[in-house]
C-alpha cells in the first residue's frame, strides 16, 4: 500500500441504504482503488445496512497484506436516510460480531464508534470496544465526530488510534482536533474531503492543470502528516483523479491561497 489516501465505500451501496446499483462496477472501483495503492477502505455496519461490508469482502477478500479495512458501529438505521446513534454495549458487540462475519475476518483492523450516543455513558461505549480489543476481535479503536475533550475522555478508557471527522479545505470546524491528533500521533481521517465549487481550489487547480478534487486532497495531505483522507466515488475516472493527489506538491503560495478565508 503506497498512498496516504484511503477509499470511502459509502456511496457504493445505493444511498447508503440498499445494495449496489451496479455490483460489478462497484467491485471494479474497490479493486482499482487497491491497485492504485490506497492503504485503507472505509465502511460501516450501517452502510447499505450490511451490504457495503459484504460487497467489500466479495471484491477484496482475501485482503492484501497492509490493507486496513476500517468499519464502524454505533448508528442504527430505522429507515432510508435515517441514522440514529445507538451506543449500548450489547448492541456495539453484536454489530462487531456481524461485521466480523460479513468482512470474513477474525479481527477488525480498525473499529470506530460511529457516533457517541448521548444516552449512554462514554466510558461504557468505549469500554465495549476495549473489551472487544482485549478479546482479540478488534485491533485498533477509532472515534467519529468528536471534539478534543471527548477524545481525551475516551483515551482514559482505551487507546484511540484514529479520529474520523468531517473536514476539508472549505470546512474547518475541527482545526483544533486536527492539531490535537497531530500532536498525539492519532490518525485524523477526514470524511467529505472534497469541497464542491470552491473558488480557491478552482484557482490553484487551473494553475496546476490538475483536477480540483486532487488539489483539495493535496491540501489535506499537506495540512498534517496525521491526515489520511478517505474520498469516495463510484467512478473509475474520479478515482484516478483523486489518487493523483499523491503526486501534487503545493507551493507555499498555493497553500496560502487555499487558506484564505
Ligand atoms: N464518519 C462519518 O460520520 C462519515 C459520514 C459520511 C461519510 N463517511 C465516510 O467518508 C467517506 C467519504 O465521504 P463522502 O462520501 O461523504 O464524501 P466524498 O468522498 O468527499 O464525496 C463523495 C462525492 O464526491 C463525488 N466525487 C468523488 N471524487 C470526485 C472527483 N474526483 N470529481 C468530482 N466529484 C467527485 C462523488 O461522486 P461520484 O461517485 O460521481 O464520483 C460523490 O458524490 C464515505 O465513503 C464514508 O466512508 C463517514
TrEMBL record:
<dbReference type="InterPro" id="IPR023210">
    <property type="entry name" value="NADP_OxRdtase_dom"/>
</dbReference>
<dbReference type="Pfam" id="PF00248">
    <property type="entry name" value="Aldo_ket_red"/>
</dbReference>
<feature type="domain" description="NADP-dependent oxidoreductase">
    <location>
        <begin position="200"/>
        <end position="260"/>
    </location>
</feature>
<keyword id="KW-0560">Oxidoreductase</keyword>
<dbReference type="InterPro" id="IPR020471">
    <property type="entry name" value="AKR"/>
</dbReference>
<feature type="domain" description="NADP-dependent oxidoreductase">
    <location>
        <begin position="4"/>
        <end position="197"/>
    </location>
</feature>
<protein>
    <submittedName>
        <fullName>Aldo/keto reductase</fullName>
    </submittedName>
</protein>
<dbReference type="InterPro" id="IPR036812">
    <property type="entry name" value="NAD(P)_OxRdtase_dom_sf"/>
</dbReference>
<dbReference type="InterPro" id="IPR050791">
    <property type="entry name" value="Aldo-Keto_reductase"/>
</dbReference>
Amino acid at each position: 500500500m503506497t498512498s496516504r489516501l484511503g477509499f470511502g465505500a459509502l456511496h457504493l451501496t445505493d444511498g447508503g441504504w440498499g445494495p449496489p446499483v451496479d455490483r460489478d462496477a462497484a467491485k471494479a472501483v474497490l479493486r482499482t482503488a487497491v491497485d492504485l495503492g490506497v492503504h485503507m477502505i472505509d465502511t460501516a455496519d450501517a452502510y447499505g445496512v450490511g451490504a457495503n461490508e459484504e460487497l467489500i469482502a466479495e471484491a477484496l477478500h482475501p485482503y492484501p497484506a497492509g490493507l486496513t479495512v476500517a468499519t464502524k458501529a454505533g448508528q442504527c438505521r430505522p429507515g432510508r436516510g435515517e441514522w440514529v446513534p445507538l451506543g449500548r454495549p450489547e448492541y456495539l458487540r453484536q454489530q462487531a460480531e456481524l461485521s466480523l462475519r460479513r468482512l470474513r475476518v477474525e479481527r477488525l483492523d480498525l473499529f470506530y464508534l460511529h457516533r457517541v450516543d448521548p444516552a449512554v455513558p462514554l466510558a461504557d461505549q468505549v469500554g465495549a470496544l476495549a473489551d472487544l480489543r482485549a478479546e482479540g476481535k478488534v485491533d485498533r479503536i477509532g472515534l467519529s465526530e468528536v471534539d478534543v475533550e471527548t477524545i481525551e475522555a475516551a483515551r482514559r478508557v482505551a487507546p484511540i488510534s484514529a479520529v474520523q471527522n468531517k473536514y476539508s479545505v472549505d470546512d474547518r470546524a475541527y482545526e483544533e482536533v486536527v492539531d490535537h491528533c497531530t500532536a498525539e500521533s492519532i490518525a485524523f481521517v477526514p470524511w467529505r474531503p472534497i469541497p464542491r465549487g470552491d473558488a480557491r481550489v478552482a484557482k490553484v487547480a487551473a494553475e496546476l492543470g490538475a483536477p480540483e478534487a486532487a488539489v483539495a486532497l493535496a491540501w489535506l495531505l499537506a495540512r498534517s502528516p496525521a491526515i489520511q483522507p478517505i474520498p469516495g466515488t463510484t467512478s473509475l475516472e474520479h478515482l484516478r483523479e483523486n489518487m493523483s493527489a499523491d503526486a501534487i506538491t503545493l507551493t507555499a503560495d498555493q497553500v496560502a491561497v487555499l487558506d484564505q478565508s
